[in-house]
Amino acid sequence: MGRVNTTGTTRRDTRRVTVSVGAVLAATTVALTTAVMAPATANAQDSSQAIPLLFPAPDRLIAAGGSPTGACMGIVSATLNGDGYPASASVSWGFGVLGVGPCNLTATLSWKNLDSGATGEKTAGIPWPRISTGIPDPISSPQQAIISTGAGRVEYRLTTTGGASAGPIIVETVPY
């Protein structure tokens, strides 16, 4: 016959795992390292294309942090090119966001033309963990990567709904 609890109290199941913030950070680090070292899965974009976009460069903004849901963390980058189109710049997104559930993360690239005063922004949504460049989504076509800033010196800032921010940097947009 089994034992009967006569104390009137309940015991917590000792097999239940308690997850700490440190454990989540460690798991995220291991997952990101694995993604960098191993090839991408059959349906995912090759992570080797995204990883270089997550390292610092003179024309790149990098914002690192968590997500609004608390289930994800990682890096979002925006690389800017001021001479791709007449009086316009282009942006290449990079994502290294890992987690255990929905991220609901939005990255916003804000810009201001310091010569003309024109302003605007581009956004990229990261609903789930991912390691990739921003094509095909959140940018479904190359035209969506174009930013009509006008010619001149353009200041850029990158923010996320998880509280991360980067910038400003200034990129010259050529008139041709």
Summarize the amount of helix as a percent range: 10-25%
Low-confidence stretches: 10-28, 30-46
Span from first to last CA? 87 Å
**Major sheet characteristics:** 5 strands, antiparallel
Give me the number of helical elements: 2
Our Rg estimate from Cα atoms comes to 21 Å
Mean pLDDT: 78
Q: How much of the sequence is in beta strands? A: 35-45%
Shape: elongated
Series of secondary-structure elements, N-terminal to C-terminal: HHEEEEEEEEE
Q: Structural class, please?
A: mainly beta
Q: Number of DSSP strands? A: 9
Oligomer: single chain
Describe, in plain words, how this protein is organized in 3D.
The chain is mainly beta and 176 residues long. Helix content is 12%, strand content 42%. The protein has helices at residues 21-37, 47-50; strands spanning 60-66, 72-85, 88-99, 105-113, 119-126, 130-133, 146-147, 152-160, 165-173. The strands form two sheets. Strands 1, 2, 3, 6 and 7 form a five-stranded antiparallel beta sheet that branches. The longest helix has 17 residues, at 21-37. The protein is elongated. The chain starts with 20 loop residues before the first helix and ends with a strand.
Topology overview:
Blueprint: H1 21-37, H2 47-50, E1 60-66, E2 72-85, E3 88-99, E4 105-113, E5 119-126, E6 130-133, E7 146-147, E8 152-160, E9 165-173
Antiparallel strand pairs: 1-2, 2-3, 3-6, 3-7, 4-5, 4-8, 8-9
Keywords summarizing the entry:
4-stranded antiparallel β-sheet; 176 residues; 2 helices; mainly beta
